[in-house]
Amino acid sequence: MSEARELLKRAASVLHDKFDGVKYMEPLIEEIDAYLAKPEPEPFGWFIEEKGMFVYGKNANDKWVSAGYTVTPLYPEHHARKPLSDDEIEAIYFGETKHAFLDGVIEFARAVEKAHGIK
């Protein structure tokens, strides 16, 4: 279980003990309970802190943990992708290409983001 999820479970326990039935706390308690009811995602990789490197695969962390390295699991929400703003696209385009032609660039960038599952 991730460290954040474990902390949230402990916080939920305190909220249930101290604030159960308190009207203004009910929405927060319900939201936390709903989040904790979802299955925790499997990590898709691990960050080996002392090496400054990433390893991928279901059990790729085993040899690093047994060797005494600090291993941090990486979950999909760590890498949530957000679309670039139009200004960011323009800054990248003009910074990289040095062209003054912009027609269709934003639409092209949005198509690329869409193809990569970025909404």
Structure description:
With 119 residues, this protein is mainly alpha-helical. The chain has three domains: 1-40, no CATH class; 41-79, no CATH class; 86-115, no CATH class. The protein is built from five helices and three strands; from the N terminus they run ααββαβαα. It has helices spanning 3-19, 26-37, 62-66, 86-97, 105-115; strands spanning 45-48, 53-56, 71-74. Strands 2-1-3 form a three-stranded antiparallel sheet, with no helix packed on it. A hairpin with a 4-residue loop joins strand 1 and strand 2 (53-56).
Descriptive tags:
119 residues, mainly alpha, 3-stranded antiparallel β-sheet, 10% strand
The residue-averaged pLDDT reads 79
List segments where confidence is low: pLDDT < 50 over at least 5 consecutive residues.
Answer: none
Helical content band: 40-55%
- With strands numbered from the N-terminus, the spatial order across the biggest sheet is 2-1-3
Shape category? flat
Number of helices: 5
Percentage of residues in DSSP E strands: 5-15%
Could you tell me the radius of gyration in angstroms?
Answer: 22 Å
The run of helices and strands is HHEEHEHH
Number of strands: 3
The main β sheet shows up as: 3 strands, antiparallel
The CA-CA distance between the termini, in Å, is 28 Å
Instruction: Supply the number of structural domains.
Output: 3
Helix/strand-derived class? mainly alpha
